[in-house]
Design a protein that fits this description.
Elements: H1 8-21, E1 32-33, H2 48-58, H3 71-81, H4 99-113, E2 122-125, H5 127-138, E3 148-154, H6 158-166, E4 170-175, H7 186-196, E5 201-208, H8 220-233, E6 236-240, H9 257-263, E7 273-278, E8 292-297, H10 301-312, H11 319-329, H12 337-363, E9 368-369, E10 378-379, E11 382-383, H13 387-395, H14 400-412, E12 414-415, E13 417-418, E14 431-434, H15 439-459
Parallel strand pairs: 1-12, 3-4, 3-5, 5-6, 6-7
Antiparallel strand pairs: 2-8, 7-8, 9-11, 10-14, 13-14
């Protein structure tokens, strides 16, 4: 099992940081971490309303001291505590989550899509990752001769390949179309499905939209084509939609799989869909609170009953994360609203500005090409590598883009993740970087990257590890 975003390059970056703190002289003064979507670690400030509600829910006596909390936060904390055992977030909650928070999620989905959502179809989890793992477990079998298969997009987020390996399931890779802004082709889905039949029983198709690491925002017609494919093949759809608030293209908007599914009419009322969202991304960036939800659309009742048994073994997810989910899906409406709007708009505007800058500056570097960043928090540029670098890497038993990223770190202090850690079309090379570092750090990052890329290509332009 591998997990690239916390892999050996990231471990080396932490070691270099430690050396700098001890006064070591390195070719750089700081390590710039652009390897993981951890917004607060990159300097993003928390949304005040979120932290107020969590503080009040955790320490209710603060409501009595008149210490300047907004009335909105007080009312929200009281509402949530009214749904907890003993009025305390220290109590276990229902396995599916706090009742009032489930209602808030259902209200949010209904408003977003224009189609009703039922709290009984929703469960809260330890981030979207915990929800995703539980849905994948529903697809497992005890028959070693008939492995379940999961159709995973390539490039993919390593959670999916790691879980597939952990569950001893079969990973069915389907390649996204880089030349068409990382959209999905029906012919490629058919190829991947047919090729897998001798190895497994395909159970589900996973889609990350907006994309990680690819940054695409799928248009409704492409989503509809995926739904029709899944319906024909009797596959569960797993829609990872944790970046739905991160849309950067002018006039662009997020369209959920549920909205498109419902728009296709009653013919698709038997198509199961699991949709995921998280407090870790969007405008909140509350990665450490570990809050997320899953909505199960068109799930048979006996399957939902089995899911309840499954999650009951873990008792419940983090109550702080559940409180954060409430704050994500239900904004304040009273005295906290102006500040809430100001803070969330500032976060999203800054991220959009950085997405534009990263796209433009990456494409200004000869030998690097990056698709427009339509959404999410990442760029996944393609890099042209000289033959000498490719042969050197292979002679050392490593992927060429791993060699590139490793030398980038050692020379500049820039930490990114090799594209091979997310998988990619054979013969292509990439790296993934976040747009989360502050703008001044990103400018330094991109200037150093431009210098390094030219030097790297020159260094390996005539290299032959075989001495020929």
């Amino acid at each position: 099992m591998q997990y690239a975003v916390r892999g050996p390059i990231v471990i080396k970056a932490a070691e270099l940081e430690g050396e700098l703190k001890k006064g070591a002289k390195l070719p750089f003064e700081q390590v710039i971490k652009a390897n993981i979507g951890d917004a607060h670690a990159m300097g993003q400030k928390p949304i005040s309303f979120v932290r107020e509600v969590i503080a009040l829910a955790t320490c209710p006596s603060l409501m009595e001291t008149g210490t300047g909390f907004s009335e909105d936060a007080v009312l929200r904390a009281k509402e949530i505590l009214g749904s907890t055992g003993g009025g305390s977030v220290g109590a276990y909650t229902n396995s599916v989550g706090i009742a009032s928070v489930l209602n808030h999620v259902a209200e949010y989905i209904t408003k977003r899509d224009g189609y009703p959502a039922n709290p009984a179809d929703i469960f809260l989890g330890t981030g979207a990752s915990g929800c995703i793992k539980n849905i994948m477990k529903l697809c497992l079998t005890m028959d070693a001769d008939n492995k379940p298969g999961f159709m995973i997009p390539v490039p993919q987020y390593p959670l999916y390949s790691a879980c597939t390996a952990e569950f001893n399931a079969h990973l069915i890779s389907y390649f996204m179309n880089e030349s068409n802004n990382w959209t999905l082709d029906r012919a490629e889905l058919e190829r991947a499905y047919e090729d897998s039949l001798e190895h497994c029983i395909p159970k589900a198709i996973c889609i990350i939209n907006p994309g990680n690491p690819t940054g695409q925002n799928l248009p409704p017609e492409n989503i509809a084509e995926i739904i029709r494919f899944a319906h024909e093949k009797q596959l569960l759809i797993m829609a990872d939609e944790v970046y739905q608030d991160n849309i950067w293209t002018e006039g662009g908007q997020f369209t959920s799989f549920k909205k498109v599914l419902r728009s296709l009419g009653p013919e698709f009322d038997d198509q199961p869909l699991a949709s995921f969202h998280s407090v870790s991304k969007g405008f909140m960036g509350e990665c450490g609170l570990r809050g997320g939800y899953c909505e199960m659309t068109n799930f048979p009742q006996d399957v939902k009953d089995m899911l309840l048994k499954l999650i009951s073994a873990s008792l419940c997810s983090s109550t702080s994360g559940q409180v954060a989910v409430s704050c994500m899906v239900k904004p304040p409406t009273g005295d906290a609203r102006e500040r809430y709007d100001r803070e969330t708009k500032a976060v999203l505007a800054s991220l959009k500005e950085r997405s534009v800058m990263v796209h433009e500056k990456l494409n200004a570097i000869p030998g690097i090409k990056c698709n427009p960043l339509q959404g999410a928090m990442y760029a996944f540029p393609a890099i042209d590598l000289p033959t000498g670098a490719i042969e050197t890497a292979k002679a050392q038993g490593m992927e060429p883009d791993f060699l590139y990223c490793s030398e980038l770190l050692e020379a500049t202090g820039i930490c990114v993740v090799p594209g091979s850690g997310f998988w990619q079309t054979p013969g292509t090379y990439h790296f993934r970087m976040t747009i989360l570092p502050p703008k001044d750090q990103l400018e330094v990052f991109l200037d150093k990257l431009s210098q390094f890329h030219g030097q790297f290509c020159e260094k390996y332009s005539d290299v032959s590890p075989l001495g020929s």
